[in-house]
């Protein structure tokens, strides 16, 4: 490279460029004294959205200068693995639609890569990584935005954890982006499917009627339905080619089997009937599914950041609880979560108390909406439910229901409380698991075992009912490593209320993930029961998706 080419003078309102070599050692020249933004040979259209207030060629000119100076102006992104890792993370933002300008920035990076301009690519890649960190910091500061259909604000400043990125080295990038192989593999397979779906032509399957399509009935727009089932892998190529020869598509045989496979994979009732939920899921545009995959990749990163304790994760739309310990799944159970009208809050905490044979203190919401209306409708309601009316939570002296003129009671101002004692019909079953939070949400057993047979289990008033509550209790007690403690079965059998403080805590994340690609490379989707995936008048209120962290 000639000195004339190396010493370019290009002033774009910020810097006079002195040297253009990022890899001076490879060119047998002196190490440069200043970064050459002139290598990025045309204005960046992405800046208008990503960093509209920036005055330089890139979003973070001064930070880039510091980073490369500390790295002797050597390239940071010279390996394909690092380039791929950066591209995957930028695509999660691009496909999810939460940050304008990222899609354009990806095109700019690819243009430089296709020109084999490693030096220009390197500068823009580092700037893009700082943009990514800035946007991730905004998500961390306000995680609720991932459930509120909001776009991230432009990254105009470098704050918080981004300042630490000024110590970036090639080794630090490798650690930050590649040190978790399982996460990287999940990212690769998810974005690969999002890539594929985003490039497909739009399918033609639409929901044209609210009527159920039962077994042996003709499927409206059946040819378009076959296309969708084939695309998702629920219909083989051979069966697809044969069925496409038919003028009418009937819900029987191979078609019915494919519908059942789609339903089972997507958490729907696997009955082969085309009902509203199944038809809605099938009719989602491919680009929308691509968006949901990427959006939920972002959501899945919220909550626990690892550690040496077991982690309980409750995924609300999947109605499942899972414990991971030492990177292994060690426990799973079905759960029942809050109904759409009374959602379960999203938050992080840690179990610190277990109560065996618990009393149930009726929450304020249930008192107002269920108990008091129930008493007004039936004088023996309290007796049927084994409930007692008490003066207050501090003064638990029992009061007779006969002292109240129930027809005149206003549920919003009723001064007394209700409590249910231990027993087989207690609403909390035999055990409850407490954790710090502001919502009175906890995990618990339930006597209503048949409800776990339902596919759709948003049935509670906000707390999480656990099917395998006894097994969970035994796991928690075993984890405490206290040989002198009584077993769970012994604690239950004495019918006395026992409150057990847990010295070894277990982390809990209550999450909301509606789309992911599983270990078999199969797309899994779940019904958006709280309306967090797309704008809707049924979207749960903001207070339910604050994602506060109560862990300590």
Please render the helix and strand layout as text.
Elements: H1 3-6, H2 47-50, H3 61-70, H4 80-96, H5 102-114, H6 118-141, H7 161-164, H8 170-178, H9 181-199, H10 222-231, H11 237-243, H12 253-265, H13 276-283, H14 286-300, E1 311-315, E2 320-325, E3 328-338, E4 347-356, E5 360-361, H15 364-377, H16 381-384, E6 387-390, E7 398-399, E8 417-420, E9 431-434, E10 443-444, E11 458-460, E12 464-466, H17 469-479, H18 488-493, E13 498-511, E14 515-517, E15 523-525, E16 548-549
Parallel strand pairs: 1-13, 3-11, 4-16, 10-12
Antiparallel strand pairs: 1-2, 2-3, 3-12, 4-9, 4-13, 5-8, 6-7, 6-8, 9-10, 14-15
Brief account:
The protein is of the alpha+beta class and 552 residues long. Helix content is 35%, strand content 14%. A hairpin with a 2-residue loop joins strand 2 and strand 3 (328-338).
Note down, in words, how this protein is organized.
Helix 9 (181-199) packs antiparallel against helix 14 (286-300). Strand 1 and strand 2 (320-325) form a beta hairpin. The protein has 18 helices and 16 strands. The model is unreliable at 1-31 (pLDDT under 50). The strands form three sheets. The chain has an eight-stranded mixed barrel. It is α+β, with helices and mostly antiparallel strands.
């Amino acid at each position: 490279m000639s000195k004339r080419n190396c010493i370019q003078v290009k002033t774009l309102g910020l810097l006079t460029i002195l040297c253009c070599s990022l890899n001076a050692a490879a060119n047998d020249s002196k190490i440069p004294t200043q970064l050459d933004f002139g290598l990025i040979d045309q204005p960046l259209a992405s800046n208008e959205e990503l960093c509209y207030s920036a005055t330089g060629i890139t979003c973070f000119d001064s930070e880039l200068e510091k980073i490369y100076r500390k790295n002797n102006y050597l390239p940071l992104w010279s390996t394909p693995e690092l380039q791929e890792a950066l591209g995957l993370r930028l695509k999660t933002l691009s496909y999810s639609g939460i940050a304008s300008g990222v899609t354009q920035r990806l095109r700019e990076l690819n243009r430089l890569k296709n020109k084999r301009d490693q030096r220009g690519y390197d500068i823009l890649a580092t700037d893009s990584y700082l943009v990514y960190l800035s946007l991730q910091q905004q998500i961390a500061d306000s995680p609720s935005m991932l459930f509120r259909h909001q776009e991230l604000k432009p990254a105009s400043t470098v704050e918080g954890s981004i300042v630490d990125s000024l110590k970036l080295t090639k080794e630090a990038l490798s650690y930050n982006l590649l040190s978790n192989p399982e996460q990287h593999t999940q990212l690769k397979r998810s974005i690969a499917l999002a890539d594929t779906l985003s490039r497909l032509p739009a399918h033609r399957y639409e929901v044209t009627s609210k009527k159920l399509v039962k077994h042996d009935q003709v499927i409206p727009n059946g040819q378009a339905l076959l296309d969708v089932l084939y695309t998702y892998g629920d219909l083989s190529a051979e069966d697809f080619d044969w069925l496409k020869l038919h003028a009418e598509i009937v819900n029987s045989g191979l078609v019915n089997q494919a519908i059942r496979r789609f339903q089972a994979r997507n958490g729907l009732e696997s009955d082969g009937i085309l009902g509203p939920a199944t038809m809605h899921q099938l009719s989602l545009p491919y680009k929308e599914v691509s968006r949901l995959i990427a959006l939920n990749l972002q959501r899945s990163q919220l909550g626990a950041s690892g550690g040496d304790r077991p982690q309980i994760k409750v995924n609300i739309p999947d109605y499942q609880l899972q414990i991971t310990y030492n990177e292994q799944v060690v426990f799973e159970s079905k759960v029942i979560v809050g109904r759409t009208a009374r959602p379960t809050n999203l938050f992080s905490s840690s179990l610190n108390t277990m109560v065996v044979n618990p009393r149930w203190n009726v929450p304020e919401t249930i008192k107002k909406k269920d108990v008091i209306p129930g008493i007004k409708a039936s004088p023996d309601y309290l007796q049927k439910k084994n409930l007692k009316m008490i003066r207050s939570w501090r003064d638990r002296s029992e009061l007779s229901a006969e002292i109240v003129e129930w027809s005149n009671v206003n549920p919003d101002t009723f001064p007394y409380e209700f409590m249910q004692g231990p027993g087989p019909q207690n609403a909390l079953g035999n055990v409850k698991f407490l954790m710090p939070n502001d919502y009175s949400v906890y995990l618990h057993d339930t006597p209503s075992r048949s409800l776990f047979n339902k596919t759709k289990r948003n049935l509670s008033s906000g707390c999480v009912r656990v099917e395998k509550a006894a097994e969970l209790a035994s796991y928690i007690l075993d984890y405490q490593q206290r040989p002198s403690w009584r077993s769970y079965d012994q604690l239950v059998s004495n019918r006395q209320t026992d409150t057990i403080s847990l010295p070894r805590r277990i982390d809990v994340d209550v999450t909301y993930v509606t789309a992911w690609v599983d270990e078999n490379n199969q797309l899994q989707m779940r019904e958006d029961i709280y309306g967090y995936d797309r704008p809707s008048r049924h979207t749960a209120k903001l207070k339910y998706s604050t994602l506060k962290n109560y862990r300590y």
